[in-house]
Write a structure and sequence with these properties.
This protein is of the alpha/beta class. The protein is built from 26 helices and 29 strands.
Length: 689
């Protein structure tokens, strides 16, 4: 299936982030020389962000890991793949014999979402070895939203903002996080879209719509205020509610407690604005709320935020209709699943997050990893394999994560670059980029509502001694005598395995449709089929399942644990609100700082504050400030902007020299999901002289 051919244009997709924009890759003499946006691609339609534009520089970066290495007396020493695999296999066997299989954890970074080759093969190895502890960023990212939808609709639904007459971008800044969506919204605005943007920052798109400058961490309250208006003014869809839902009467009573005047005090949003946006949203012919990827989830009531937004869509009848939230069919792909009976860490604390109505999540609760390693409770975890992730920077409470990694007996990292996590490893392994192996581009359903699939083609041969992740897991499996579970030897065999149940073939996705295909039509027939896979068979506005587990069956606003309301004494010491993780278009989380062209346009981490906040603390634009929480301190350059809400300090994640996760904490957690608070903490700032 090698597609290297001189002067040829190869149609594939970019997965430097989860969106998977279509690209035309130009190859000369076996070298990738250029990429450009693929106009036929239904999501990106030819658009590429700066990361995609600089793909060639990334692939051929001199900083790439080029061969396996092991640490000896603090220095890296080049070793062969054979030695690396022998060492890993023998160490893992020793650990299993002494502490049991659960003493190994495997962590998969966010790129495992769009790369079956990373996540699914890592999980297969987990099953073969017998550990339940497959961990990923999904313990703090996106799965909360999926669970909120499952609890409400029985399945995950996706918004259709480009078809809607009214779109609410709620904590979402697609100009800096999802360029393909931003392009579509700008086009829709020209065609009459009514846009509402709820965000503490006036984002570029907020300047084109109604901007609601909310206090971070109060989204659930705002949603309940909107529900109060919609229900009290009779703006709800009675027919839809009567036919397809349960629990509306209880909701009707519940939201009486949240009149706009009360919500104004909580959210900083004027009551008149709450009424205004509720009316616009509820009376639009079709409407979609588009939440940011994690902005509503990383709170102690993140799950309830997801439920509140789902209920807004339900009462306005914007479910299973074009322009609302709709189900998306997924391709049937080959499975690599091997069952492990033992539950992973974190299940006792958050049972619903792991198991809902007999369905189990693929992941354990990563937020319990550091504590489990450090306390050895409920049992010792002694080894970790990290694939495509950098938990030292990306997970909350970096200092605790570092302590946990230091305590491990054995740490292996497979990656393209020497990350902050790889620096701490015993063995690092060089991974191929997605241009050096084949795969399936299949996440368009869950990320963009498109029943679309393409073959991610191997554009160039693997560079240096880099291996595709699937090969690492298969070869390690063979070394550990699990060879019968890892029969795959080539990219082609792997891709054939994925495609087999789908009815699609490699030939179809290379010769007939190299740009990809819609494997089915998107339908809006959940209501007609009566397909709500909840216990009641209806959309559950009121969730008996949540009630049975001791959680709120209807969304209730909960103050962030650190706020002037919930912790006034702490607020005396730390008077400002810290929100973390705004996106930067040049980077995906912790990646690409070493691509010079990207670094040139976004050279350093920047905290954003309002000029009035700056003046209050004697700070000027461009100064370096110290930002301190009760967990730690970092130094970072400041930008003053009137776009930011006063009293808010916004700091991006992913920077080693100003690692915002030094400031964040693992406690408290959302009781349902275990997610930690990253979007509304308390901090103080001062100018660094
Ligand atoms: Fe690649 Fe950028 Fe598209 Fe993400 S948004 S897939 S990084 S081009």
């Amino acid at each position: 299936m090698t597609t290297v051919s001189p002067g040829k244009v190869i149609k594939t997709d970019c997965i430097l982030c989860v969106w998977g924009c279509g690209i035309n890759a130009y190859v000369e003499d076996g070298k990738l020389v250029k990429v450009e946006g693929m106009t036929e691609h239904p999501l990106s339609q030819g658009v590429l962000c700066p990361r995609g534009e600089h793909l060639v520089d990334y692939i051929y970066s001199p900083d790439r890991l080029k061969y396996p290495m092991k640490k000896r007396n603090g220095d890296w020493e080049r070793i062969s793949w054979d030695e690396a695999l022998d060492t890993i296999a023998s160490k893992l066997q020793q650990i299993k014999d002494k502490f049991g299989a659960h003493a190994l954890a495997i962590f998969c970074g966010s790129i495992g979402v769009e790369n079956l080759e990373l996540a699914a093969f890592a999980r297969r190895f987990r099953g073969a070895y017998g550990t339940p502890n497959f961990l990923s960023v999904e313990s703090n990212c996106f799965r909360s939203r999926i669970l909120a939808h499952q609890l409400t609709f029985g399945t995950f639904l996706l918004e259709e903002p480009e078809k809607a007459k009214c779109t609410i971008l709620w904590g979402h800044d697609p100009d800096n996080s999802k360029l393909p969506l931003a392009s579509k919204i700008y086009k829709a605005l020209d065609e009459g879209l009514q846009l509402i943007v709820i965000n503490p920052k006036r984002t570029p798109l907020a300047k084109r719509g109604i901007h609601i400058q909310i206090r971070p961490g109060t989204d659930c309250a705002l949603a309940l205020g909107m529900l109060n208006v919609i229900i009290s003014e009779g703006l709800y869809d009675k027919e839809f509610i009567d036919k397809y839902t349960v629990g509306f009467d209880k909701l009707k009573e519940h939201v009486k407690q949240y009149p706009p005047e009360k919500i104004e005090e909580i959210t900083w949003v004027p009551a008149s604005d709450i009424r205004r946006i509720a009316r616009i949203y509820a009376t639009a012919e079709s409407a979609s709320i588009v939440p940011g990827i994690c902005s509503l989830d990383q709170h102690i009531n993140g799950l309830q935020n997801g439920r509140a937004l789902s209920i807004l869509q339900v009462v306005t009848g914007n479910i299973d209709v074009p322009g609302g939230w709709a189900a998306v069919p997924f391709p049937r792909l080959g499975s690599l699943h091997i069952k492990v009976d033992e539950d992973p860490i974190g299940v006792a604390e958050h049972p619903l997050f792991y198991r809902l109505w007999g369905r189990t999540s693929p992941y354990g609760q990563t937020m319990y990893f550091a504590d489990t390693v450090l306390t050895e409770k409920p049992y010792p975890i002694k080894a970790l394999i990290v694939t495509g992730g950098n938990p030292v920077l990306s997970l909350p409470d970096s200092n605790k994560m570092k302590q946990a990694l230091e305590k491990l007996d054995f740490l292996v990292v497979i990656d393209l670059f020497m990350t902050e996590t790889a620096e701490m490893a015993d063995i690092v392994l060089p991974a191929c980029s997605f241009m050096e192996r084949s795969g399936i581009g299949y996440v368009y359903g869950v990320t963009s509502g498109l029943p679309y699939i393409l073959l991610r083609k191997r554009v160039i041969e693997p560079l240096w001694e880099c291996w595709p992740d699937w090969k690492f897991w298969c070869e390690l499996g063979r070394k550990m005598d699990y060879g019968d579970l890892f029969p795959w030897k080539t990219d082609e065999e792997v891709v054939k395995h994925w495609l087999k149940p789908s009815g699609l073939t490699i030939e179809q996705l290379t010769e007939q449709n190299p740009e990809g295909v819609f494997f089915t039509e998107k339908k809006y027939d959940m209501r007609q089929k009566g397909e709500f896979k909840t216990p009641s068979g209806k959309i559950e506005i009121y969730s008996e399942t949540l009630a049975e587990h001791g959680y709120d069956p209807l969304p209730v606003p909960i103050e962030p644990s650190q706020s002037p309301v919930s912790s006034p004494e702490l607020a005396q010491e730390y008077p400002l609100i810290l929100t973390t993780g705004p996106r930067i278009l040049e980077y995906t989380h912790t990646q690409f700082r070493n691509v010079p062209q990207l670094r040139q346009s976004a050279p350093e981490p920047i905290a954003e504050i309002h000029p009035a906040t700056a003046t209050k603390y004697g700070i000027a634009d461009g100064d370096t400030i110290a930002v301190e929480t009760r967990n730690g301190q970092i130094k970072i350059k400041v930008r003053t902007t009137e776009d930011m809400a006063p009293q808010v300090v916004s700091i991006p994640h992913g920077w080693a020299q100003a690692n915002v996760n030094v400031l964040t904490e693992l406690e408290p957690r959302d009781p349902v999901t275990g997610y930690t608070e990253l979007k509304a903490l308390l901090c103080r700032i001062k100018k660094v002289i």
